[in-house]
Write a structure and sequence with these properties.
DNA polymerase, domain 1, Dna Ligase, domain 1, 3 domains, 5-stranded mixed beta sheet, DNA-directed DNA polymerase, damaged DNA binding, EC 2.7.7.7, transferase, DNA-directed DNA polymerase activity
Length: 425
Amino acid sequence: MQKAQIRQWDDGSGLKWLYLDMNSFFASCEQQADPCLRGRPLIVVPVDSEYTCAIAASQEAKRLGIKTGTQVKIAKQICPDLKVVQARPDEYVRIHHRILEEVDHVIPVEKICSIDEVACRLMGPETVEAAARALGHRIQRRILSNIGECLTASIGLAPSRMLAKTAADMQKPLGMTVLRRDQLPGPLLDIDIGDFPGIGPATKARLFRAGISDPRQLWHLSPSRMRQLWGGIGGDQFWYALRGVDPPEIETERGSISHSHVLAVELRPVEAARAVARRLTAKCGSRLRRMGYKCGGLHLSIRGTQEGRAQAERLFMATADSFRMLEAADALWDVCVRTLNQTSIKKVSVTCMRLVPADTAPDLFGYSPAADEDPRHMRLLEAIDALNQRFGKDRISIGPKPKLHEFVGAKIAFNRVPETPEFWE
């Protein structure tokens, strides 16, 4: 009976994944929040500056050629009536969680791929194309009805997660694309090879140099040739994913925590920028303690307004003591400023390296990482963390508080959604 059911559900499509990709997510959130922005060209920016770049563009802006990465000054030249909105990461994360709830009402979320992309595994009768399409339409309708009419999603259905992500990008906005195993590579032959996940500008350029310029040529490469072109196992994984077979997941351990900030004009003098470096270091310390880690080193990088970048790092005994970390940050700052030899700083980045769990037990030989923490410091820092989480970020700060963007350090990276407590650190 079980085998008969499996054959009944096998329609030749091989579908295993439903991939949801929100369309122009940050811009759509802003249009949903403010009806006056709907139907208008809009970009979302990290800071209020003519020289920063868009981190999102509405569908209307994209039709004019304005996209993510376009400088504000250039975007305004293209469209003088362009609306420019400063990013509100906490609002985007809040809506992200609402989207997860709506998806979960239809099908469990297998993996959160980014703040605006999730993957769901299809099982049993869900793998039949008609049933999978019905699930996708239900998700689209629920988001539009229960969260907002501006929040459109495109759906991709395919045998591998990589192909499902590719499919989700093929029809926007509010599209649905099915890539069946029994029709491959047909539907893929009309897209640009740079549209495949995992083929960024550097890989695309490498493929071009090897004479690979379209999906048909890519499809006919052998696994060994792909491994050679990718420079490792990533080539083998891409070969299988392209044919609808998911490569095994590779689990990685967290090795670092980092925060960076592009400085507004008034924060670019060296002393003002130094305060930003200290604030980012303190935020790293707060995040270490919340996540139950200690770090064994600090890396500082600064970029000048002119060409040039300086970086330095210092290793030390494992700690989550912000006062110890700030001492290291001050020393690294002096080194970087001397090396850069500029009076104006454009970007500051701080990274905590060599993370170890705070409760790391001794190994078989009795060794555990030596820690450098003053018990008085740790009690004070725990109290500061608790007060800031309860009453708001920076109610209590270590040293003078720089005039920073409200969400400094709570950056939404492509593959990482900030946790809610980060907005209060």
